[in-house]
Structure formats: C-alpha cells, structure tokens
Write a structure and sequence with these properties.
Layout: H1 2-15, H2 22-30, E1 51-52, E2 58-59, H3 62-71, E3 79-83, H4 89-95, E4 100-105, H5 108-120, E5 126-130, E6 143-148, H6 157-161, E7 163-174, E8 179-187, E9 190-199
Parallel strand pairs: 3-4, 3-6, 4-5, 6-7
Antiparallel strand pairs: 1-2, 7-8, 8-9
Helix pairs in contact: 1-2
The structure holds S-adenosyl-L-homocysteine.
Length: 216
C-alpha cells in the first residue's frame, strides 16, 4: 500500500515532470518518506507538497528533493554536504546517491531527531551535525557536492569556497518569498553559474545569509 503510493509518487510527480536520472528515481522509490514525518502526518507523506515537521520547518516537496538531487549530477563517489537537514529525508535520498553525506541543521532538536531517525533506518553513510551551515564545514572541505535546502539572499562565500574542483553547489537564491534554484560549478578557471527553476524555501538563517550581520 505505502509502496504503491511511493511508486505512484515517482511516476506522477517526478517522471511526469521530467526527472530522468534513473539513480534519483530509484532512490526516491526506496526511501520511506512517511518515516520522516510526525505520526499524525504520515498518511499525507506521498502528497505532492511540502509538509510541516517540528519547529515551524518543513520537509520539502518530493519533486523538489528529486530536482535538487538530479541537479547535483551525482555518480556515487562524492563527498556531499547538505545544509538544512530538517527531517533528514533529503539526506537519506542523497546518501543513496553519493559516497558520504554530512548534513548540518541549525535547530538542535531537529538535528538530533534526524540523526536518530537515519540511524534507526539503517543509513550508515550520513551524519547530522547541529550548527550554522552558512559557514559550511571548513574542517572537512572540500566537497564534491553541496545541497542547500533553505533560501539565501546570495550564495554564501564559505560554501562556494568549499567546493572541490568540478564540484557542484545547488542553492535557492532570492527573496524571502520566492527564489531561483542556482547551480554553481567550480571549474579549473573559476565558476559557472546556471539558473534552474523558480522555487520557494524557508529562509537560510545564519551568519552568511539572512542573519544578524547580513540581510534582514
Ligand atoms: N532537507 C529537509 C528540509 C529542509 S527545510 C528535509 O528533507 O526534511 C530547511 C531547514 O534548514 C530547516 O530545518 C531549517 O531549520 C534549516 N536551516 C535554516 N538555516 C540554517 C542554517 N544556517 N544552517 C543549517 N540549517 C539551517
């Protein structure tokens, strides 16, 4: 029953909208999205929308998780950094597509819950840390891929600096209400910037984004 809902999600929400990366489709079909939601919301888990988790935050819409995963062009050997772990759902999907995932979450209770959930579901190549992800993770840089799941007024400099050669950074950039998904690729001579689709994310709050010393 749940498996059928998940297969329908992959077909109707992802393939129909143009997600073609077969590894992404397989990962989305495998990860039990309902297990990342509060008990009273699990029946809505495979709906075509973002859903509330705790602390006023959300689990992203399945299509957006797939779109970002596809945009990261993962082959399976990458070291990946996710900013905004939230429920841990996207981190679980990404852990099936990359070699090693570190996810940072600003709200400590969410970080702890996500870490515990990922362990209990058997995702062994993911860690969740609590902290301000706008600073990246300098001690573990560089990363082959960085996925930012919250909206920033600009591309935080520490994140672009922590990209490995040929590394990809996917991030929603824009105002509080609407943003554009960008892909920044580190090239031998600099950076390439591509604009993907329009999106809506909760704000990235921290030193190098919407924060005390930055934009308001
Ligand atoms: N990827 C998540 C959804 C993310 S919602 C999932 O699959 O469930 C965005 C998350 O980013 C929220 O949980 C929010 O608390 C977090 N966030 C916002 N600013 C942050 C920052 N500076 N560092 C780390 N996490 C941040």
């Amino acid at each position: 029953m749940i498996e059928q809902q998940r297969q329908a999600m992959v077909r109707e929400q992802l393939q129909r909208r143009g997600i073609t990366d077969t590894r992404v489709l397989a990962a989305m079909e495998r990860v039990p999205r309902h297990r990342f939601l509060p008990a009273d919301a699990q029946e809505k888990a495979y709906a075509d929308r973002a859903l509330p988790i705790a602390e006023g935050q959300t689990i992203s819409q399945p299509y957006i998780v797939a779109l970002m995963a596809q945009a990261l062009l993962l082959r399976g050997d990458e070291r990946l950094l996710e900013i905004g772990a939230g429920s841990g759902y996207a981190a679980a999907v990404l852990s099936l597509l990359a070699a090693d995932v570190v996810a940072i979450e600003r709200i400590p209770t969410l970080a702890a819950a996500a870490e515990e959930r990922l362990i209990s579901l058997g995702y062994i190549n993911v860690r969740v840390l609590s902290g301000d992800g706008t600073a990246g993770l300098p001690g573990e840089a560089p990363f082959d891929a960085i996925s930012v799941a919250a909206a920033s007024p600009w591309v935080p400099r520490p994140l672009r600096e922590q990209l490995a050669r040929d590394g990809r950074l996917v991030i929603p950039v824009g105002g509080r209400d609407e943003q554009r998904l960008l892909r920044i690729t580190r090239t031998p001579t600099g950076e390439r910037l591509e604009q993907l689709s329009g999106v809506r994310f909760v704000p990235l709050l921290g030193k190098h984004a919407w924060g005390e010393h930055g934009a308001r």
